[in-house]
Amino acid sequence: MTQSRQDTIAGALSLGLGLCLLLWLIPHWVEPDPDLRLPVSLVPQVVALGFIVCGTIMLAKGIHAGRQNEQPEGGGFDQGELRGLAVMMVILIVGTLGFEVLHFLVVAPAIVAVSMWVFGPVRPVSLSLTAAIGPVVIWVLATQVLGRVLP
Fold first, then answer.
1. Residue 23 to residue 35: CA distance in whole angstroms
2. Alpha-carbon distance 133 to 81, whole Å?
3. Which value, in Å, is the radius of gyration of the alpha carbons in the chain?
4. Which of 68, 88, 121, 150 is 20 to 30 A from 95, alpha carbon to alpha carbon?
5. Burial 54-92 (b: 16+ CB within 10 A, else e)
6. What integer best gives the mean pLDDT of the chain?
7. Is the pLDDT confidence value at 88 over 70?
8. DSSP assignments along 14-30, one per residue
């Protein structure tokens, strides 16, 4: 796969993610807090705009380079990487839907563990510790320190 094709695909995915965040996920999942001076959705909206800007630039770069008849070059995605990307997207979608049914402390460690397992050989101790410690720290910070409710 040529570099221009990679840029086009990555740009389109980034642009789509940014739009999805800005138009659907943030308005539906971020709860306003009247006690704060700045809206809770400010940082997620800035991140979403960053995805949109970067995705648009990459998409334009990929389309522009493709029109200039860029010669195929070595490298690019191979079939295993594309399968890994597809599997990771499915894991994240299923995990996101799982948050609606199960608690954060059940779904988040599962997402981390499966993601680590998919992308290569990992020692069981490393996998267990990473899958357990990260989500627990996030949960404690969000619920106890920030006073926010996680699904």
1. 24
2. 28
3. 19
4. 121
5. ebeebbebbeebeeeeeeeeeeeeeeeeeeeeeeeeebe
6. 83
7. yes
8. HHHHHHHIIIIIHHHHP
